[in-house]
């Protein structure tokens, strides 16, 4: 279950349609660092390909490691953190500009209704609970329903009856969104489709240690490297964002509106956008792709990690009464439950000459939210014959051109090639359905 759209950030209310995960990049390694005070649990995964007998890993650590400090982790746990924090594409739909203006509905200066989170389509009421199914559809392995509701208890009941395992007390979180008359995007996985992806990677290793040094050695990984390597680091902390102290960190470009055809090309788009900003920053900075509390997200690219999954990732400051924390050394467990966990996702592309030092970090109390996020605004494609509709169409072409310009600036792609993929015909008035050409009233077969 995903609860999206914070009340203080309504502009984020859309739904997630795609993401750029670590597997997009060649030679990419992934590391999870769970850190509080001077205690660390480090989980390492990599993109090793080849015969297992040829695999070797050499990792410097700040203290001597004993057998009880080494554990085999779960690849699925890292995949979960990756999915939760990956740069994402969200989608909005322009409503019918000729529809009556609802009380409280926002319109821009051209009279265009602001995008809503989902189109209004078939409505199927659910008796007694005040829930309406606005639409339902499937996107690959995702089964999706779009809901509206009159009251939060009814929506929570509907979700539970429909098989969604939502957190207890969810109605309290749902209530503010219902009062704003927002819709709810709900998704679950078709497991058969999901399992087709499969993974062929070695299981990750976990090492627990205690040291004042908060660092990640990367230099040894350069010994056999002949080119650039990508490293994605997920840092989990009870305080807030983690920062690099010996390299500059730059936020990845975010919040930009781009053409709707990118929905089918998001992977290649993000790779190009990353390369562009990487070169702009002279190939010697780390990039912040995500920073958020793991208990929520807006919009969510996947369900937030559960307490069990966080423990599997090495988070040792959670309630220690759960037997599932067996991979955490007893000396790291605390008696007082602490459920706040902040995730910082850093993406480093490094070479020998640009990153001569290992990565040195520090914990901070900065709780500022950030995500690499890109926006698609789907135009309304129905007939528009009213005055507001004419204004809408007049404003549509400049908007599409601006989106094309944004895409070119982000990626370095040719603006001409981008224009060739955009359907500008939707900016022209459509002929009303069912009209008869005037000459057919005269030239009729008898």
How are the SSEs ordered, and which strands pair?
Blueprint: E1 15-19, E2 28-36, E3 39-45, E4 70-72, H1 75-85, E5 88-93, E6 124-126, E7 131-139, E8 142-149, H2 152-161, H3 170-179, E9 184-189, H4 191-195, E10 205-210, E11 215-216, E12 229-237, E13 242-244, E14 249-251, E15 256-257, H5 266-280, E16 286-293, H6 307-312, E17 342-350, E18 359-363, E19 370-371, E20 373-378, H7 387-411, H8 415-420
Parallel strand pairs: 2-12, 5-20, 14-16, 15-20
Antiparallel strand pairs: 1-5, 2-3, 3-10, 4-10, 6-7, 7-8, 8-9, 11-18, 12-17, 13-18, 16-17, 16-19
Helix pairs in contact: 2-3
Overview of this protein structure:
With about 450 residues, the protein is α+β, with helices and mostly antiparallel strands. The protein has two domains: about 240 residues, no CATH class; about 110 residues, no CATH class. Helix content is about 20%, strand content about 25%. It has eight helices and 20 strands. The strands form four sheets. Strands 2, 3, 4, 10, 12, 14, 16, 17 and 19 form a nine-stranded mixed β-sheet that branches. A hairpin with a 4-residue loop joins strand 6 and strand 7. Helix 2 crosses helix 3.
Structure, briefly:
With 446 residues, this protein is α+β, with helices and mostly antiparallel strands. It contains eight helices and 20 strands.
């Amino acid at each position: 279950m995903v609860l999206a759209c914070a009340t203080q950030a309504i502009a984020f209310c859309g739904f997630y349609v795609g993401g750029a995960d670590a597997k997009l990049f060649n030679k990419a390694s992934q590391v999870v660092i769970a850190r509080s005070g001077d205690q660390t649990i480090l989980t390492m995964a990599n993109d090793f390909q080849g015969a297992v007998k040829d695999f070797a890993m050499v990792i410097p650590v700040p203290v001597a490691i004993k057998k009880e400090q080494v554990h085999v982790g779960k690849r699925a746990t890292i995949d979960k953190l990756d999915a939760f924090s990956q740069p994402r594409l969200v989608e909005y739909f322009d409503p019918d500009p000729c529809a009556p203006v609802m009380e409280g509905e926002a319109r821009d200066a051209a009279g265009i209704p602001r995008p809503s989170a989902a189109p209004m389509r078939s409505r199927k009421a659910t008796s007694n609970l005040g829930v309406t199914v606005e639409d339902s559809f499937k996107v690959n392995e995702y089964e999706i329903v779009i809901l509206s509701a009159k009251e939060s208890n009814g929506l929570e009941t509907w979700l539970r009856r429909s098989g969604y395992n939502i957190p207890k007390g969810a109605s309290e979180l749902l209530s503010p969104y219902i009062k704003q008359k927002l819709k709810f995007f709900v998704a679950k996985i078709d497991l058969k489709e999901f399992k087709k992806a499969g993974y062929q990677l070695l299981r990750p290793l976990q090492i627990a240690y205690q040291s004042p040094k908060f660092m990640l050695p990367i230099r040894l990984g350069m010994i056999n490297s002949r080119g650039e390597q990508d490293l994605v680091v997920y840092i989990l902390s009870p305080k807030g964002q983690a920062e690099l102290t010996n390299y500059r960190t730059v936020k990845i470009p975010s919040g930009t509106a781009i053409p709707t055809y990118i929905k089918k090309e998001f992977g290649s788009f993000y790779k190009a956008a990353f390369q562009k900003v990487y070169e702009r920053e002279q190939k010697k900075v780390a990039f912040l792709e995500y920073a958020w509390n793991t208990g929520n997200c807006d919009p969510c690219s996947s369900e937030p990690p559960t307490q069990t999954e966080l423990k599997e990732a090495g988070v040792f400051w959670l309630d220690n009464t759960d037997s599932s924390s067996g991979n955490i050394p007893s000396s790291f467990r605390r008696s007082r439950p602490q459920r706040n966990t902040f995730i910082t996702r850093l993406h480093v592309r490094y070479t020998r000459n640009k990153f001569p030092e290992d990565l040195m970090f520090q914990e901070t109390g900065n709780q500022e939210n950030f995500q690499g996020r890109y926006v698609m605004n789907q135009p309304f494609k129905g007939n528009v014959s009213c005055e507001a509709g004419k204004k809408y169409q007049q404003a549509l072409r400049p908007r599409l051109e601006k989106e094309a310009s944004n895409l070119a600036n982000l990626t370095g792609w040719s603006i001409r090639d981008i224009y060739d993929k955009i359907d500008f015909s939707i900016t022209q008035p459509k002929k009303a359905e069912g009209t008869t050409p005037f000459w057919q009233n005269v030239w009729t077969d008898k």
